[in-house]
Sequence to fold (575 residues):
Amino acid sequence: MGLLSVVLVVVASLACLPQPRENARVLSVFPVPMRSHWIVCRSLLEALHDRGHQLTVLTPYPTGRPRRNWTELIVPDTMHLLGGTSDLFSLGQRSDFVWLLRLFNYGISSCEVFLQQENVQQLFESDREFDVIIIETFFNDCLMALAHKFRAPVIAISTLVGTVWMSDMMGSPYPLSYVAEPFLSYTDRMPFWQRLHNAAFATYARLVRRLYYAPRQDALVRRHVAGPSLPSVLDIERNTSLLFLNSHPSLHFPRPLAPNVIEIGGMHVCSPRTLPQAAATGRHSFPSDCDAGLPPAICSFLATSLSSTRYAAVEACVTQRSVENLQEFLDSATDGAILFSLGSNIKSSQMPDEKRAAFLTAFSQLKQRVLWKWETEDLPGKPENLKVSKWLPQSDILAHKNLKLFITHGGLGSTLEAVHHGVPLIGVPVFADQDSNMIRAEQHGYALRLQFSNITADTLLWAITEVLDNPRYRQQVQQLSRVFHDRPRAPLEEAVFWTEYVVRHGGGPHLRSPALHLSWHQVWLLDVVAAVVAAAVAVLALLTLAVKAATDKLSSKRLTAAVHRAAIVGSKKHM
Fold:
């Protein structure tokens, strides 16, 4: 009986253990030709791959080596359709409305290219099956047709904080009175004219998207891959199961979100590693084992981590390129160091000559050492305290104890990394959401914002001195960093959990907002307001008629009485 009891206890214990996770077939659609977007999105894909899921990845960024359970469908880089990187410095000078229309037109042109690719057409024609489709939602709505083709749940990822049409797609509230569009340079406290502009811009975006952009997306899909019976992409996208937003309340302003809208800001940031010591170049994919000749530090990280997915990220964990003696350069920076980078899309080497000269002049007058992401071989006039490189392991540099300041373009990924590591900012926004990111950072007290058009050596020196010498910037960002880290789960774990949740529960229809079944006037209770106003008008009209009738009757009685009295008086006179 003793042995039988032990066996029963063991069997019962095994029955209580979590069941083995079923490997899902994941179609990942990330055609956006912006490496900063890919850095965020690929961190999730690497995490899912590390957990044994089978991935088919549509992207313009090949990994360069075969991998088990990782199939790549390479699409062209369509950045030139947006004007290319050389035109980015001028984009910020255009109005918000013109910039948004240009993005919509880019989406139409890029979809024309994507849908004519042989591998994309073969995907539409295939009889493959997928358990979930993960797609970046950034003006590539034509590829939402894949959800209709494969009848699979869709998870959308926004590498921005989300737009009004993304909230519409999910049936999530978007109160324009205090939630500003990410392309506008407003906070959550907008005076009347800003609220008017925000409402006008959101209305413009909705109308252009519905009346101009979406019909052209539909026409492209029906012409190239689907045929006339395909529903509109606007109807398909309303079946999206989940939306990931690259945001967090500590950096952005609180806002109402539907249950299937999840904030995963910072999921691309991984634990800091020792910076490179010797000169080396190379590109390595981040495999699930250590058979690719990766440096021992990476293999050690993989071997000792409880789960490599927990901290997987692209910039630090997927790609590794080294610059000579970077660790030594920062370790010996006794007066501190400054990092200057305009991100992965904007190239410092293409900035106007007078702006480059202003940065060089300002940096030459500093006692701190400066690292500058510079994309060409030479930088004429480079001072002794400046080191340049075509690529820098940004997150690892921000984690270094001697790094005192980050001069950035204000991209969302860079801002999240700075807050993650507790480094104050000087923002030099160029285009898109960068200005609004820096306005939020400035309002939170951990950044100064400089207009690129107004950059001079003097303004740079003033801003650098202010942030370095005033302790409140570092204190504020470190306090914000503590809030940023204080979560039930790390952001990448959160994204993995919800992705697998959608697979387990067939898309999670119980999370969908009932607002999706209502028209816009019903969501805003305009029909109720109209009914109440109509009822009030009817009651007021009836009251008016009643009062008029009563007044008329009273007047009639008074007139009759007056006539009667006049008659009596007249008769008395005749007597």
